[in-house]
Specification:
With 321 residues, this protein is mainly alpha-helical. It has two domains: 104 residues; 176 residues, hpI Integrase, Chain A (Orthogonal Bundle), CATH 1.10.443.10. It is built from 16 helices and three strands. The chain has a three-stranded antiparallel β-sheet with strand order 1-2-3, with no helix packed on it. β1 and β2 form a beta hairpin. The relative contact order is 0.09.
Length: 321
Amino acid sequence: MKIKEVWDVYYKSHVLRKVIDRERMEQKWNLHLLPVFAEREILSLAQVDIDDYIEGRMNGSHPPVAALSTARGEVIALKTALNYLNEKTKQLTLEERREFPNFEYPPQPQGRVRWLDDDEIDGMFEQAAIDRPARYGARLSRLERFLWLGLETGAREMAIRKLKWPMVDFEKDEIDYRKIDAKLSPVQQQRTNKKRKACVPMSPALREVLLRERTMQEEAGVKTDYVLDVTTTVYDAVIRTALRIGITDISPHTLRHTFATRRLAAGVDLWDVAGLLADTPETVRKTYGHHVPANLKRGVMLGTIGDRADHIDRSFKTAAE
């Protein structure tokens, strides 16, 4: 089977049905992966081909010139599609499955903490959907729910595992992790978990996901108050899913780092991020401070009085916006 046929199966069976950012996935394949790999037989793929592709994207021989992170994202998309073909379809013989290609790619350039970029987040969600156990039916798996909560609230793994539906307020659009230890004495709280917890607003996307899951959980007759059904660890599931798309250096806590890093990079105030994480501003600055300086210019621009100055020509102002 050729790579272009892999894409065709993956697109019709998975992308059209489950991928939210379909246009972005189509661009990766139609503009970059297919021009290089379309006619290649999947069993002929080797590590050298992946290395050459990444190098070619970075030096322009596979135009246009792209950063390492962009090339990695495209390879993640390729590997996820191959995994889908191998495990969710009956397109391959037993011999082809045994000889199925496996490859790695360079790790993401890192700062002081490891966080997931957009392509890695997409890859995690797509692989988790592919690996979703049949018993969940149309519901999201525990891993998928954990990914949503970790990336959208920044809570620690234990807090997410202990989260109950009464702590999710759909009227106020917030999740109050503080209620996890509400019935414990201060001494008990210190013994069970010294980490502070926060009350975090729900994004519209997270609210939609959780409301759907709550409704489906009730319809399925699942007898539990826990958002993840049970409180057992998700560590192995996170690691296993990451490894399957070639990510070797993350843990569940990486989702918390990702949450903080993305908010700071988007210009959210350091004090506000600290409040969302239930950390001190000093801890946030010390851990994620390398993202703050890049936002100083944005902070100045957001505070400018230029957009209120009558003497600025309207056409110039419109062009600047």
